Q: What sequence folds into this?
């Protein structure tokens, strides 16, 4: 997954955030269900 940082202001805000804590929180919340059907392997 890639993210676009629109400005240096956003970059400096990210520096002050607890990114590792946010990653752990995201992992606990889980993934969204897929919006497409799983491709069958041949």
A:
């Amino acid at each position: 997954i890639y993210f676009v940082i629109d400005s240096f202001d956003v970059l400096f805000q990210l520096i002050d955030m607890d990114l590792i804590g946010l990653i752990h929180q995201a992992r606990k919340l889980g993934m969204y269900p897929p919006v497409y059907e799983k491709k069958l392997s041949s």
The CA atoms of residues 5 and 12 lie 10 Å apart.
